[in-house]
Amino acid sequence: MRVPIRGLFPGKRAYEPIPEEQAEKIKAWWHELGGDPERLVIDCSSGSRCRLDEAEGVIYVGADINPGEGTDPNSSMRWRAALAHELRHLQRFDTGCQEEPGPLDEALTDLEACAYPQLPPAIRDELAADALQRLYQYINEMKQREKE
Description:
Blueprint (H helix, E strand, L loop, with lengths): L19 H14 L6 E3 L8 E3 L4 E4 L11 H4 L2 H17 L7 H11 L7 H27 L1
Parallel strand pairs: 1-3
Antiparallel strand pairs: 2-3
């Protein structure tokens, strides 16, 4: 039995710059989730991307923290869910629990981020939907490798 993934139109995350008012909200939400403010760098420029900088041990939050135009779970995930996901990436890095970069690591990060007690149910639902989408991607990649 296949569980349908919400949204059929795959898209991308936002490209527009992060407004200063939102940057302050991002800092506050990071703190509320338990993130160290010294390990958060916000790049408000257009087209900037969220990423873990392993060399510096920080999370860069970019314009793609905001949802984009697609209707698939990753494109439509709100910034609070995306920030919880990024914080969990940092924590997984700190503990050495990360997988090889790819859909499996992204899915596990989503699922683990669901455990933050501060998250409202709607944010958990978005993370779980994204995890399910990533698991489907992982399975499809595994099937492709088997064919090769």
